[in-house]
């Protein structure tokens, strides 16, 4: 692992600690080099015995796969070296998610140092790209909001091969998304203090958020329609969990909800980590806390022609570290659920 | 006060305790009759010396105004007696909010016992109905979601007299609303236990919610357009606060946001309890905690033609008890801000 | 399982779902008979496929072991039948914890129906009674406060065989204990509503709490001294976790803290679920969230002769369901950590 | 006001905004100079119109009183100048609380620059020092833990004049104290992030805390006995509130609790901000949220000879800004409750 002092890192360590086929060789952090991992995270005392080390190319080159759990812009500086040495790379940041380089550079405010690698990177959403992930050397692990949103929308469009009939007007998508505070990371900012966010709620990034182009890219890949997407994120006074409330105009307002529900259920019938709730239910974020599952419910709105999709994930698990482990499992031909089968903790 | 054992009741007691022109004569509760108010609410020890009593028509008839803070369906059984004796009535429940009786009976699941009084009742949103509130005998205090939503939408339409130009297409309204748990009341239900709702988030009532027709009625009163409204409420793991995220298609996509912002600012320039934030800001629910203020921000979405309005209130204050006191002040010719001028507590 | 609709029940289901040697045969609940477990607990969708059933002696008799996760006073009515049929019983309630029957009857307010079974029951704290648990037919799973407190105190006394030197004066014990709200159970009570306990803190049961005699019994079993115990519980506005802050007068005020720390470390050196923190640290309840570990730190107070022991557990895991699984593992000769090795989730 | 960007500052601004006799002339902050106060704290929009300014001796000299709400060690550098110009000073930090200079320098890690002023400063706990506060030029506003603890202990000793009989052994005091997170201030530290402290609980400072000598000094001033004090603070996952659980050995174990309760009630019978709860009750921190009240309950422990005192305050109000306003009221001959009479918000 490169990085690993943030919440995504500790979640990855938690999951790998009980993974039967993975063994953590090295974990790097410039700022914490020399510190036992379990000093920073006492929850891992007895489970993880490594110390953080300064990044060392030789040590990393001996791994089968490297997880990069660093801030945006770091993985792109390591990627070529690792790949050249035959090490597979799963980047949990955003460096390889967006295919259009100018778009990426606009939203992330930096110049991309290896655009050629972006072209070959595989967007690591197994429900969309499982077969190519299996062959991938470089996987761009999806963002948390895009994971919850894309899984909630996928069954509504023609699909990557255009086989299905689209059910909704892709130009009318509204995604009102809410995230727990761990999504904001572990850096020392006044805005993320307990006393600033507890017992309160707000929208943020209403003028534009980096996950907008990522969601747009995903949906555009499965529909011929022009995608019009409104995306507004909000900050929840809780630790883990993303809830995406998705609104879209039905193309056929007479379509019975039962038929749409059946389509969702069939679409995900072989997916180990997507659960379509019975009609009438509403998913709670706690129902996926610490698990790699995405739970989805669909409703028809009163007073309009809109379909409403409710999609929840744990931002640190299916929205980050769990999905990274799922991708690793696929890349190495392991059982896709290995290390990921514990039910959510409740409550 | 009739009722007063719930959170709306204790908030009303808190506000009246420092109101210079109001004196609480009697507070009724069948279930708590005989109990000192301050036994149920130690926060009021030293501020409120009354005991709860069984409802007594004679005692209530001596009041200038009665607040009814009971469950839905109770105030309508008391209203005629009180009004006949010259007592003004402010109902904090829903009995007199909806003008269309079949609609009310559909959503509230009971037969209305005094439809004639509904016709004469005034919907107590001062920013919409101040002058008629001043003359009213019976005020229907608005619901919490409708208050936040309606205040966020009012400046966008022609207005009650049709003078203005509508800015948005009324058929495209999406209201994604979130409420703190106090909005669910104080009855003993498993669903509202701390261990059920803490550190979690969910939508509820996606198949239809009672506040839908109330919002629809409000907006329909200020536009000639047909109103198409999607309304989905959610439950926040926090005590107080409502955040309405409102989406609407702009009729003129070239309209600069600055002009819309100016319209909001002008619209509410004389309102003591509506605050339009500077462009670029996002209101936090905590910025209105325990206060009667509604704070509103507006944004233009990236990737679509939608205006996004963010509106926050404290559900127990501007969304219930505070607005009731504001209505009382107006009905009795008092300074409208009397008893309501304390800033929000922070944090 | 008998019972299983409460938080202890769902935690037990979570742990058993990934236990390699246990298979859940039947789960009973009179109130939820016929309901799929995963309807009540969507977190278990895909992991637990059983329905709740009415208690059926025949079905229970086919199990190797029955967990009773019912309110106090129920297990004692089932115990003899199960034991007579050769089924082992682990009671997660209090029916078999207290050896002195009049004391039990005083604190639990009912008549015990099988005092003879109490005598043969084993108090299921493995760190105290491992060898007898291995032979037990009937295990009384300890209470949550007593688990955290007893583990924090055990190394300070002579021990069950009187071999060691006592370090503290057993007549001076003060246990200031704090519990998350899940410890209060899942019944519908106003006092446990989110809106009643969130963002607040209080002591409760200061006039006497049922866990007092249980702690007293435990400590009295490992010292010749007369035990004087003050125990005050408090309610934390959080889901899971117990923190016991324990004060005791040192018998030798000159004893260096390092020596006491070494004694703790040695005492628990072979224990898989007790972790003594390095000197100077303070355990956080989140460091054991969802795990079966108890973490302990010791300090010497400024300004007095008191030793301060800080002990944390997850009340649902080491304080209930996890310890029950640990006991099952011991009773059936399994690896004691089977099903219990996942690190705490963080945060 | 000097300082005012922290939580104590914004609480002081909230209280002064509705104070009938106080007008805020200037508020200083080097880091935020030029920023409108209401930009930093939108909760004050419409209530406070000032901008932060750089500290300016001339402007401050025109005030009747200056509140210093800065970090420790700042007020002592301003004090002499202000006092020399006839400006009264209320320091909300610790600079003037401890009479013994070496003790202060030990705990606060700096050299005191004006020890002579310490001698003349008045410790601003009105319940202890009302008459001298009325004459004071320089008031040291007490710490939050010391306020809750001292008020809980005062009635148990001989009193400053030695008139009463002591009820407890002063050498046996244990104070297990818990504070909401606002007590930790508003600086950007990882340890105070929401994701670090939410849904968790821990002790801190077990090896020694700065409030220990302050409590010791207070108690020593009202008893001839030698004071032995153990003080352990803990961090609660909530915003506001302190709960001190205080243990002390009764000198006469036969003393009925009723008599002790009567003594507490009589002791505080004329105090506007101390409320002794009826026997059997437990104070909740929320019962004083945003108010200047301290609520106290007393219990006799089961199984020992200890008296247990439970004392709650809001750390930002009675524990800081509210007490500062109370002191100002006393110093200027105003009604002591002016600006402080709003009941606690609930919930």
UniProtKB/TrEMBL annotation, chains A, B, C, D:
GO terms for molecular function: N-acetyl-gamma-glutamyl-phosphate reductase activity; NAD binding; NADP+ binding. Residues 2-136 form the Semialdehyde dehydrogenase NAD-binding domain. The keyword Oxidoreductase applies. InterPro entries: AGPR (IPR050085), AGPR_AS (IPR023013), AGPR_dimerisation_dom (IPR058924), AGPR_type-1 (IPR000706), NAD(P)-bd_dom_sf (IPR036291), Semialdehyde_DH_NAD-bd (IPR000534). GO terms for cellular component: cytoplasm. Pathway: Amino-acid biosynthesis; L-arginine biosynthesis; N(2)-acetyl-L-ornithine from L-glutamate: step 3/4. The active site is at residue 144. It catalyses: N-acetyl-L-glutamate 5-semialdehyde + phosphate + NADP(+) = N-acetyl-L-glutamyl 5-phosphate + NADPH + H(+). It is found in: Cytoplasm. PANTHER family: N-ACETYL-GAMMA-GLUTAMYL-PHOSPHATE REDUCTASE, CHLOROPLASTIC-RELATED, N-ACETYL-GAMMA-GLUTAMYL-PHOSPHATE REDUCTASE, CHLOROPLASTIC-RELATED-RELATED. Catalyzes the NADPH-dependent reduction of N-acetyl-5-glutamyl phosphate to yield N-acetyl-L-glutamate 5-semialdehyde. This is N-acetyl-gamma-glutamyl-phosphate reductase. It comes from Arenicella chitinivorans.
